[in-house]
Automatic annotation (TrEMBL):
Domain Acyl-CoA dehydrogenase/oxidase C-terminal: from-to ranges: 241-391
Pfam families noted in UniProt: Acyl-CoA_dh_1, Acyl-CoA_dh_M, Acyl-CoA_dh_N
Protein name, UniProt field: Acyl-CoA dehydrogenase
Keyword Oxidoreductase: yes
A GO molecular-function descriptor: acyl-CoA dehydrogenase activity
UniProt cross-references to InterPro entries, sorted A to Z: Acyl-CoA_Oxase/DH_mid-dom, Acyl-CoA_Oxase/DH_mid-dom_sf, AcylCo_DH-like_C, AcylCo_DH/oxidase_C, AcylCoA_DH/ox_N, AcylCoA_DH/ox_N_sf, AcylCoA_DH/oxidase_NM_dom_sf
Source species of the chain: Pyrodictium delaneyi
Superkingdom in the source lineage: Archaea
Domain Acyl-CoA dehydrogenase/oxidase N-terminal: 16-127
Parts forming coiled coils: none
Location of the Acyl-CoA oxidase/dehydrogenase middle domain: 132-229
Keyword Oxidoreductase: yes
SUPFAM superfamilies in alphabetical order: Acyl-CoA dehydrogenase C-terminal domain-like (SSF47203), Acyl-CoA dehydrogenase NM domain-like (SSF56645)
Family: Belongs to the acyl-CoA dehydrogenase family.
Amino acid sequence: MVLPFQSLEDFRVELTEEHELFRKAVRSFVEEHLEPRAMEIEKTDRIPDELFEEARKLGLFGVGIPEEYGGQGGGHLMEAILMEELSRVSPAFGTAVAVRALFTTPILLFGTEEQKKQYVTPVARGEKFAAHANTEPCCGSDVAGMQTRAKKVNGHYVITGRKIFITGADKADYFVVSARTSPPKEDKRWWGITVFIVERDTPGLKVGQRFNVTGLRGERPHEVILDEVKVPEENVVGPVDQGFKVIVSTYDHTRVGIAAQAVGIAQGAFEKALNYALQRQAFGRPIISFEGIAFKLADMLMQLEAARLLAYWAATLADKGDKKFVIAASIAKTFATEVAERVANMAIKIHGGVGVDIETGVERYLRDALITTIYEGANDIQRLTIIRQMLKDLFGIKLVLT
């Protein structure tokens, strides 16, 4: 036993020539289309429609989605490679492409065949945008505490509430929305939540203010207001009152992508720091020749490669359908996002004064890295998940921490 795992086989990372060919294809797209406009995205706080069109032509919105629903297939590992390559240059664009997984994953895992064909297919083809509306002013990581309500009335549901920090809401044609349909049970606080598919043009649904968060310029989140939004019963995703499981299972899967995004951020920051250290002269020689700079770069590279291996490892376990991927995803997400923060911070210091100049494009990596430590489960929540899952798997212990 390799505690808390069972065997050394659990640590196998299974990459193929297909994965490398895919990475090269995405890298080509990034260098030809995305990189020349990365600073434009940063300055205008908007992603040009032409970039989405080019991504659609390449089928990037369908990566990880089965071919029978309009996708490209490929699984979590292919999605991780995609997210890493996009985020190396523009984490905002990576988020804009990847957010569709927060909509498609719960439907693919828990939805009906009709829901998959009607809603997943156009999103996978890049014909429609989609978002995931769960976070509320009262509750982020505390999903069970949500206050949005859905009342059943004559074969449909009426939803009222407010969601905040919803990525992609401004463009979304479809939303996955969570709401409380029943009171929680005494011993099951999570009970009573249901997940719905809501179309954007449904009366009562309004996309409100944009939140000017510190990072991800070009793909900053919005609020979603639901004022007696009428949703047909057939738009319920998964069992009624058991939507908590739908939501947390979704995050278990999509969390791997955040680890990969953090790897991309760290890679981009490292490359900028390395290039600058080779070119910048001080006291008559390149600054990389100074031990203080060289050691920083060595530390950055060590942490970056460790984060990449963890992200690919979690993705491999998820593709195998191994239940241990849940703890692996939390480990990878927590480690990789904190590595991205440290690497970006060191990249700024290596650049010195120009590192905090917005025009150089270095400081944005730190702002974007900070976001990854918070969304899709803040890192302290991931630490709780890691210890709880380990004790549950090994000893059957249900740990309650406060």
